[in-house]
From TrEMBL:
PANTHER family: FAD-BINDING PROTEIN, SLR1998 PROTEIN. InterPro entries: FAD/NAD-bd_sf (IPR036188), Flavin-dep_Halogenase_NPB (IPR050816). NCBIfam families: maturase_GoxB. This is FAD-dependent oxidoreductase. It holds the Pfam family FAD_oxidored.
């Protein structure tokens, strides 16, 4: 049976940050889960606060090499139905970036591999179904990939759950709480005309049943999302491109921007969970949760990717200290996350409360 200092459940952003941190300290670490390959999905913004984390993880040069674009302009029609520009060209921590998610996650995967970290690309459902149990000072993991091959038996001194919102291990020990059931209807639009240079910007627009988000991606596609509650979305929207086009046409600013730059909806959107959820405690005896497994925030925060990097690194630092007999860094990590959740919930209420013109509509009244 193989024994590792740390086992990381999940191969995404938080898991990669955790694995790089542990490997960088000279400890043995294993990643359990497929390589992070986002494909087309919402979540493209990396805030300026991420720059220091990227440097700590040895990733700054990889990310600076592109093809990501600097996020230097955001337009919003939020508190009032008037479009206002918010510039972020200058920032003490450096620029924020709109990412090519595929390139970004491939860079993380490559960095983990180059650090000599082994990976078992076994579905996370296998880890959840076949068992993770505590045996004295060790975790015993039984992994089954659904084939006729014999199960894999592993052991680790510390476990980091970076399995996303599913939190396949951590939710067995602590309760997961939920502030809302926000969903994202997501689409990625190709430009249909070649003689217009699209504005490299992000646009946010409040609407009666939710809010719209559009951003120009590094590959010149337009990322488009509408955030609402499941009961406020038209039934069958994920199979109805005509209804999706009609919803966009009802906007004041988003439709105008996309149309002027030659972007057209060609297919129905894909739906994805986007609600605010969190664990009541993000760490315990011999384990910690990181990324969305620990806390997933409303995309209005624009800090999801940065939070994943931060949590993966800090959870791993707590694990390393715990292995050396010091529990204080792990306790500070969990306490900091608790406070971050409280602050976000307060800020969330205030930001949604700015939109008074829709205050009587269910989506908005639920958040005020």
């Amino acid at each position: 049976m193989s024994l590792f200092d740390v086992a990381v459940i999940g191969g995404g952003i938080a898991g990669a940050a955790a694995a790089l941190t542990v490997a960088g300290a000279g400890r043995s670490v294993l990643v359990i889960g497929p390589e992070g390959e986002a494909g087309d999905r919402p979540g493209e913004f990396l805030s300026p606060a991420a720059n220091a984390l990227l440097a700590e993880l040895g990733l700054a040069d990889r990310i600076a090499a592109g093809p990501h674009r600097v996020a230097n302009a955001t337009y919003a029609a939020w508190a009032a139905p008037v479009l206002a520009q918010r510039n972020a060209i200058t920032h003490t921590e450096g620029p924020g970036r709109v990412l090519d998610r595929r390139v970004f996650e491939r860079a993380l995967t490559a960095a983990v591999a180059e650090a000599g970290v082994p990976r078992l690309a076994i579905p996370l459902a296998g880890a959840e179904r076949d068992g993770v149990r505590r045996d004295g000072a060790l975790w015993r993991l039984t992994l089954e990939d659904g084939t006729e091959r014999a199960p894999r038996f592993l052991a680790a001194r510390f476990l980091i759950d970076a399995s996303g919102r599913a939190a396949v291990v951590a939710r067995r020990f602590v309760r997961r709480r939920r502030a809302d059931r926000l969903v994202a209807a997501c689409d990625f639009l190709a430009q249909t005309i070649d003689d217009v240079e699209p504005t490299p910007a992000t646009l946010i627009e409040a609407a009666a049943e939710g809010w719209w988000y559009a951003t120009l991606l590094p590959d010149r596609r337009m990322g488009l999302a509408f955030f609402s509650d499941p009961d406020r979305l038209p039934r069958g929207l994920s199979r109805d491109p005509a209804r999706w086009r009609a919803m966009l046409a009802e906007t004041e600013w988003t439709a105008r921007w996309l149309d002027s730059a030659g972007y057209r909806i060609a297919a129905a959107p894909r739906l994805a969970s986007a609600g605010t959820t969190w664990l009541e405690r993000a760490a315990g005896e011999g384990w910690a949760a990181a990324g969305d497994a620990a806390a997933a925030f409303d995309p209005l925060s624009s800090h999801g990717l940065t939070s994943a990097l931060w949590a993966g690194r800090r959870a791993a630092q707590g694990a390393l200290a715990m292995l050396d007999g010091d529990s204080r860094p792990l306790e500070r990590y969990a306490t900091t996350l608790d406070e971050a959740v409280r602050q976000f919930l307060s800020q969330r209420r205030a930001v949604y409360g700015e939109v008074r013109r829709f205050a009587d509509r269910p989506f908005w009244s639920r958040r005020q």
